[in-house]
Specification:
115 residues; 5 helices; alpha+beta; two-stranded antiparallel ribbon
């Protein structure tokens, strides 16, 4: 954890009894994302800030632009349940970040395995 914090990386917390995995990112990928986070109680008496759906989608898009193939499916899953205004925000911000073509490409992909 200390190494990740010092380098601005990420680490994971695992709680096997409750089967919970949290990805902890120690820096902002999307401008203002920490301001939009929502506090949620994950265990009795323990609340943590959770990323907004739009910022989760945009961070996946950044990871995809850096070569993450797994994030492609994750992005589609995140946006599958998005409200129209959330999708509009993602599209607008992706355009501002110069990632709108990549967003369209990923959203047009299928999760089905072709044979």
């Amino acid at each position: 954890m200390r190494r990740s914090i010092a380098s601005g990386g990420m680490f994971q917390l695992l709680e096997p009894d409750e089967v919970v995995k949290l990805d902890i990112y120690t820096r902002c990928l999307i401008p203002g994302e920490l301001d939009r986070s929502v506090r949620a109680e994950i265990f009795p008496g323990m609340s943590v800030p959770l990323v907004a759906r739009t910022d989760a989608a945009l961070s996946r898009l950044v990871w995809i632009s850096r070569g993450s193939h797994r994030s492609r499916r994750n992005l589609r899953w995140i946006l599958a349940g998005a409200k129209p205004e959330e999708l509009a925000t993602v599209r607008l911000t992706a355009r501002d970040m110069g990632l709108d073509e990549l967003l369209n490409q990923v959203l047009d992909e299928s999760d089905e395995i072709e044979r």
